[in-house]
Amino acid sequence: MKINAEKMAAAALLTAAGFIISYVFHVLGMSRLGIVLLPLHIPVIICGFVCGARYGGLCGAAIPIFAMLFNGLPPFIGIPMIFELCLYGVVSGLAYKKLNVFGALIAAMFAGRLAGGLASAAVAALGLANMPFSLSVFLTAYFVTPLLGIVIQLILIPAVILALQKARVLQSPNQTAPSSRE
């Protein structure tokens, strides 16, 4: 397995950004707002695009683990988030090799939400959370309540990725290396 120091450093920075965002939301008592804005999703999905599936998945799994250990994120929320965010990072990295930024983003968003919903159902079924889980709860928790965060992701993430491409920091997967004439 080849280790890319630049990708590892970028993934570490994006993981740290996610942890800091989690910490700030926790310290300021804005946890409910986090459920609406989905701020932790952004560095994870960007990590998948920039660093690839492996680092994106690690970033996505690490942030909720750190949040549970240091920020007081309850396990019945954190455990499903591990699966959800991990899939965001993995799928955004994999899908970006085959799809444009919007297609890869939408694929990652659906895969992550599905994984989070299945993990939430498992947590509820195992009695690890004193809360019911149903299709209605899933749709509300993963699509209705965070609608503003979903819109923010659909606007912000492609803008960041396209800006990184324009700055030649990130190469589009369908783009060949720049020619010597450029």
Please give the largest β-sheet: none
What is the helix/strand order?
A: HHHHHHHH
Calculate the mean pLDDT score and round it.
Answer: 91
Strand content: under 5%
C-alpha termini separation: 33 Å
Approximately how much helix is present in the residues?
over 70%
Q: Which structural class is indicated by helix and strand composition?
A: mainly alpha
How many helical elements? 8
Q: Uncertain spans, ≥5 residues at pLDDT below 50?
A: 176-182
- Rg, alpha carbons: 17 Å
Strands, count: 0
Shape: globular
Oligomer: single chain
Task: Describe this protein's structure.
The chain has helices at residues 5-27, 31-37, 41-51, 53-70, 75-95, 101-125, 135-144, 147-166. By secondary structure, it is mainly α.
Tags for this entry?
182 residues, mainly alpha, 8 helices, 74% helix, globular
Short summary:
The protein is mainly alpha-helical and 182 residues long. It has helices at residues 5-27, 31-37, 41-51, 53-70, 75-95, 101-125, 135-144, 147-166.
Protein topology:
Blueprint: H1 5-27, H2 31-37, H3 41-51, H4 53-70, H5 75-95, H6 101-125, H7 135-144, H8 147-166
